[in-house]
Amino acid sequence: MTDSKKITVNELANILKARLIGSGLAEVRRVSVFDSAGSDSVAFAAEDKLLEKISQCKAAAVIVNKEVNSPIPLLVVDNVERALIETLKQFMPPLGKPAAGIHKTAAVEQGATVDKTASIGPLACIKTGAKIGERTVIGAGAKIGENSVIGNDCRLEDNVVVYHNCSIGNNCVIAANSTIGATGFGYYFINGRHQLIPHTGSVIIEDCVEIGANSCIDRAKFGNTVIGAGTKIDNLVHIAHNVILGKCCLIAAQAGIAGSTKLGNGVVLAGQVGIKDHITIGDGTQVGAQAGVINDIGPNIRVVGSPAIDAREFFKQVLLEQRLPEMSKQLKQLVKRVEELEAAKNNS
After folding, report:
1. Which residues contact 111 (CB under 8 A, 6 or more apart)?
2. Is residue 84 in a domain?
């Protein structure tokens, strides 16, 4: 976070359309977490446990979702997370915008089309038949394969590889070293060896998709692997051939989705989730960290565990497991008591 920019609490209140309680004269230079905020920071508190400690906070102001008694200024908003996003934007370090044009070391093959407002970075390679849209930025060392189409206002960071015949919509971001459209992992065992199945399909990435660093999205055997509009994919995610992701999904780091799986709209996969091939997950379902999904899941369900089951059932099982030592002790006592009663009965 840069210290070069500073705004007053009152100015920030106007930007956030927040209700200011207290003085707005203090200057803010950064955003900090609640417990470490200093007098030149703005902090945020959406949870009651933080609001209860508001008197201990040393920030210039705190963004909150309700009014509380406080010795420091409050910025009261309807949604703290939304206000936090806007606040962070105010203190983003300024980055130079790449100039339009093709760097002298880039290779643009004959038959490729690059819009005059696009920027092609050093050592990038644009293969024949590829199309680069308006104001799109292709980073250093990136490669766009034959006949692939990149839409308008996209940003593909350094060393991104987009294989042939792929389609990326408008306003997409792909972080460094990610790969789109590699051949999927499909083999038949023939004549004593594994033989790769040709993958003649493509990858379609719809508008406003963001993909983190070092992620891989495989092309389809036939048809298309599809990433729905507004979906956000973290670093180190693998999406296999013929997977269909709905709109506005969230896929966290190290998740792996096997081939021909279908996710509905708004599905959330937490970190290290594994999804079996050829299954369907309904709209709005949330899958907890490290869960292993091996069966279809309906809409608007929260599952955890491996194999993944309904979260409420899972936590019931956890509670029972925690009681097992005591239950085992009680069982031994009962068995001993029964044996004593049987022995007394036999001796009578």
Report:
1. 128, 129
2. yes
Crossing angle between the packed helical segments 9-16 and 80-90, to the nearest 10 degrees:
120
Domain total of the chain: 2
User: Could you tell me which of 211, 202, 260 has the C-alpha nearest to residue 237?
Assistant: 211
Full residue range of the structural domain in which residue 56 is found: 7-90
Q: pLDDT at position 288, please? A: 95
Measure the CA–CA gap between 229 and 213, rounded to whole angstroms.
19
The residue from 55, 90, 125 where one domain ends is 90
* Three-class secondary structure of residue 6 per DSSP: coil
CATH number of the domain that residue 269 is part of: 2.160.10.10
105 and 86 in a common domain? no
Q: Is the dihedral of CA 303, 309, 310, 313 positive or negative?
A: negative
- Looking at residue 3, its pLDDT comes to 47
Residue percentage of the chain with pLDDT more than 70:
99
Identify the pLDDT of residue 93: 79
Mean pLDDT, the chain, rounded, equals 93
- Which pLDDT score, from 0 to 100, does residue 249 have? 98
Report the distance separating Cα 150 and Cα 172, nearest Å: 9
Domain annotation covers residue 316? no
Q: Which of 33, 62, 90 is the last residue of a domain?
A: 90
Of 103, 199, 238, 241, catalytic = 241
Among 42, 128, 34, residue whose Cα is nearest residue 89: 42
Whether 248 and 297 share a structural domain: yes
> What does residue 318 show for φ and ψ, rounded to 5 degrees?
-60, -45
| Arithmetic mean of pLDDT, 285-294 | 95
pTM given for the model: 0.83
Active site residue 238: no
